[in-house]
Structure prediction request, 206 residues.
Amino acid sequence: MKRRQGQSQVLSLDEIKRLIQFQKNSRHSTRNICLINLSAFTGMRVGEVSKLKLNDVVDENWNIKDQVVLKKEYTKTKKNRVVYLVHKEVRKSLENYISERKRVETSKETRNVMKKPLFVSQKNGSFSPRTLQRLYKNMCRSVGLDEMTSSHSFRRTFITNLISSGIDMKTVSTLAGHSSIQTTVDTYAVSNPNKMVNVCKNISFQ
Prediction:
């Protein structure tokens, strides 16, 4: 797929695999791999991810939910929306990360643990959108990805792949949390030259 100048690049599956493979040897491997998969396979904005609390994703028994209701104070559009935690890579990485968090938090006997941030920094605090953006950027740089790759690349990859797979624009727009279908069309529905060639090649008249 052609990558547009001035916008965050769309990641290939191989690039996502490279990112994950590199992070397997990092100090915060389970957290970082979970961040990669959550962004690439749900399309959440970095600001939304940074605001997630443990109780958004797990119940009181630490069981992972099938869906997250992003509160309006989390979202860019200031409207509640649903994010589905059902992709196998999302589930697997969440299970690994939540298992680790449960072990740490249980050992500390933390009060009100479920109100703590889902993703914690090296200093055991919350990420701001800016510091989380920087983490994504550093992860991308660590495997030599292009300068145009950023935290938004994961969201762009999710949305672009939905469109390329032929998913209807209403569904894409809803999953992306856009305020209107027009936003999805104007921002992400980029013409694919290969697809246009195939359409012209296979035209048949009745």
Summary: Residues 47 and 129 are 5 Å apart (CA to CA). The longest strand covers residues 67-70. The longest helix spans residues 88-108. The beta strands are 67-70, 81-84.
